[in-house]
Structures are given as C-alpha cells and as structure tokens.
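We emphasize that the prediction below concerns an isolated chain of 610 residues; any contacts that depend on oligomerization or on bound cofactors are therefore not represented. The input was used exactly as deposited, without trimming of termini.
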Amino acid sequence: MGFFESAILEKHEEATKAVEGWYLEFERAVAARDKDATRALFHADAYWRDVIAFTWDWGWIGGPDAIADRILGAAEEIAPHDFHIDERRTRPIWIQRGEGNVIEGFLQFETTYGHAEAVVRLAKDGDGYSAITLFTYLRELRGHEVATLRPSGIGVDRNDTTKSWRDHREAALASYSERDPEVLVVGGGHSGLMMASRLASVGVDALIVERNARIGDNWRDRYESLALHTLTDLSHFPDMDYPLTFPSYIPKDKLGDWLEYYAKSMEVNARTSTEFLGGTYDDATAEWTVTLRAEDGTEQVMHPKHVVIATGGISGTPNKPNIPGLEAYTGNVIHSETFKSGRDFVGQKVLIIGMGTSAFDIAFDLYNHGAEPTMLQRSATMYTHVDTSSAVYGAFLDRSRSTEEKDLVSYSDFVYPRMLDGLKAATAAAAESEGAMIEKLRKAGLKIDFGEDGTGYLMRSLRRGGPYYLDVGAGDVIAAGKIRIVQTDEVDGFVENGLKRSSGEVLEFDTVILCTGYLNLKEDVRMFFGDEVAERVGEITGMDIQGEIRNAWRRTAQPGLWFITGGFGQGRPHSVPLALLIQAELEGLQPTTREGFSARPDEVIHYLEN
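Result of the prediction step, given as a token string:
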C-alpha cells in the first residue's frame, strides 16, 4: 500500500470512529433523557432538520439548547434506538460541504413507528467532534415495509391461464368503475405519477385522474422547442433512473413519452380523459364525495379518504392578468400555454409580456423562425446560463452515489440560513464568471438582478416562482439586438395596433403573448372545493417564515387534502414522507408529536409580501 492510499484509509478510519462515537453517545443521552449530554453533542452553530422521523412534521431548529429540547421532547413517544452506520450508503468521509470541511456519515435507526435514516455532519470541536448538522428522515412505517426482493414466480398467474398480465392490468383499472380508491390523485404529470407510485409501493390503493388523453400529454402539448432546464441526473423518477443515453437536458416530447412509460412500467393506475370536477368533505365519515367526468360526458361519484392535488408540479391554471390598457389592443392575444412553435408567426411582429424562462424560450424560438420578437420588461429578472445554474446541483452528477443518497444530502442542505449563505456565494461566483454577458445584456436594455438578497434564481424560484432566465440561447440574440427589450417606464400604454412609447412612436405588433405564468394552486382549490376550503388552506408553494414550502407535501388545514408540487428533484424525495403521512392516517397512527414545528403556513418570509 502506497503512502497516499494509506493516508486515505487512515482518514476514512478516523471519520468512521468519529461517527460511531457520536451516535453511540447520542443514543445513550437520548435514552437517558439527559439534556446536558444531548446538548453537548451539538456544535454551537448546529442545525437539526427533521422530516417526520421525530416530529411528524417538516422543519429545522438551530442551536444546541433548542435542538436538545425538541429531540428529548419527541423521544418520549418516538423512542429512537438501534443507531448504526448505513452500510448501503457511502461510508463516513471527510468532505467539503456548506458547513466547511466536515465528517459526513449516513445512519439508520429505529423509532416506535418505523425505520428511519439520518445524515450527520461532524465538525472539529475542541479535542473531539460535535454535530454541526443533523438530518433525520422516516423512510418506512413499521409493518408496511417496501419490498426489497422481487416477488416469487414469473409474474403470471398460472392457475388462471385464461388471463394475461395485460388482462389483469385492464381489470384492475376497470374495477374503479364500481369501487373507491383510498387515495385519489388529481393530475398525471410527474408529481402525480411519483405520488401514486410511492403510495402503491407501500400498499396504498391510489388512482390518478388525468384530463389529457395520454399520460405525458402535459409535456407533449407544450411549445416545441421546450426542454428541461434542470439536469437529467437531478430529474430521475423514483425507482427508475434515466438511461445514460438520455441527453443532459431532456426535450419535452421525450419526457412525455418517459412519463407514459413510467406509468406503465410501475403499474400506476391512471384514468385518462377524465376531468376532476371537485367535491366536499364529510368530517363525520372522514371521506370525500367527489365527481369525475369522462370524455363522453358521463359522471361518476367516488368516496376516497384522501385527495392529492398534483395539478401544479410545473404549471396549473394560466395566469391571465388584467394588464392596464391591453383592452385597447385589437390584435391577437394568447397565453404562453397555447404557444406551440415560432413557425406559426413567421414574419410577424410579436410582443412578449413576461420575463421568465418560458418568455425567453419563446422569444428565441420566434427569432429562429423568422419572427420579430420584442420583450416588455416590467421588473428585473435574474439571469444565468443553464450550465452555470446546474452547478447548484453539481452533487447530482456524482454517479458513484445512488439517487436516494444524493437526495438525502440535498435534504440535509435544506436549512434556510445555511441555504442563504451557500446560494449567495454561488450566485456571486456565477455573476463574476458571466460578467461579460451580463454587461452585454444590460447594454441591450435588459434589467438584471441577482435576487432580493443576492441568493439567485433558485431562492427566487422557491420564494415566488420567478422571474429568472436559465439561458439556452436567447442571451446572445438579445445582446446582438435581435430580440428587442422595452421597459414599461418607456411606454405610455397600448393602442389599437401595439404599444405607444413615451416619445410618441408606436411599436406595432401582430400578436401579444402573455408569458405571465400560472395561478397559485390555491385557485385550483377554490375551483374544486369552494371558497371556504381555499381560504382555510391558504397559499400553496412559496416559503413560510421558517423557509419550508407552504402547504406542499405536508398536512394542510383541510383534513384529507394534500398537495405535491415543484420540479422533479422535489417530487421524487418529498413523495416518500407524504405517502407515509397518508398511510399513517389510513392505519390510524396519530402520534401526539405530529404538530412538530411552530411556523404556520400564513407566516411568510417578507419577500413574498412584495
């Protein structure tokens, strides 16, 4: 063994001993309900984040005193025990994370209710080590474990030779014409599919209803030039990673076909060409009465115990704002939802209202097809190149780790104060590396910022959905002056044939495209369940005062109503705890610790109030 190999082995052994020593002391201290001993195991700058393992909720706490209080408070009922290093994961190592150079170890442990996992990061603290970050996560409920071995047999019932596998699948789906699922999932996009697959894996009977004719049409029907702006390695589905033959950014039609393939492969029960009309909840029976409408107009009433709304993973109901003066314009006005290709606008002068990624994509597509696009900017946008933006998710390119493990690492990092520091540093580095392009874009008239507090596009997306642009080509065209930028303070308003500038010049347009995004899912709730339920639940997505996503993947104020939203990298890991929360309610498990963290969904960080 060479010098460097010996040194590496020694570092691994040091890391392993440190992690083993820490969790043994932690288990002893918690079992003894010893606050002083528990507190002493945490660094002065420590954070603990829990996802339903201890608190039956999502959230984080900072500081050794507060951490010790909450862990010991939950331990009376949760009874954490049998901590050990998770042999399925990367062994304890020294690694550079947001906390600095730390030892990172993956653990498994047991609780009263199930099998849990932890990620601990240890920092040097005097002569020893203390936890600077602890993340705990419930993976499975006891007695309802996900199968780790393939079912025996050949997958066909040889005792019933008249029915094939396909016959059984068709019969399973047809059975819902006469019975109710335990869970009805509204929406067959990636969020709905991930949710239904997770529920099925733990034995919960779930049915998806999707208004489109085929699973995947929600992507196929979008504009032709669309591709994911997030890395393929970040966007895997549960239990089914994309092949290495897939490109770094997946085109939308290929993605739509993958959704359909995933649904069939995972035997997800999905009824397409079916519209969810809404329903009411009966507190006495703890079930919904909902109505579905098939393509032929026939309606069916169902009584699921739970409804999961998955209509807004990326989009939902189009936002068509009342833009002052637009009523004076007599030309063609469409929303980006109906835009398909720039070939439909060859030779036209087109005004785009909006500064999100779709707006830039559409402007670029129009330019490539011979149209003359102009973008009307109402507020500054965050700019970064798509490849630079992916650096935030660089850990997902490490194929030596499983997707599950990388999700755990990402979960550990989702502590709001630490996120802010990390994103500020990443945004500043990106701005410096892209300084020349940013200067060109500003000279071309584009107003650019770096987020309200310099945290960049990711935090802006989490807080309020945009605006930001992950550049896939439009930047060079704007810099060259071939996509014109007009600021709202340069115009007096709309006239019959276009925009009137303050100078008196009229900018004529054949078409106006509203790239104004989509309404908050709260409006879907209002449409489906009425004003009272919508106001009870409140806003969905955006961040609460603790830096957690509001009302998504967690209990809401309306019993039996849940939401899953966000991108692939959120839906994949977050669907696990949501499935467990639903399963626990179906099984009658109601831990008294379930209220967990104190932040309410209506306590919103101040950026959302602007």
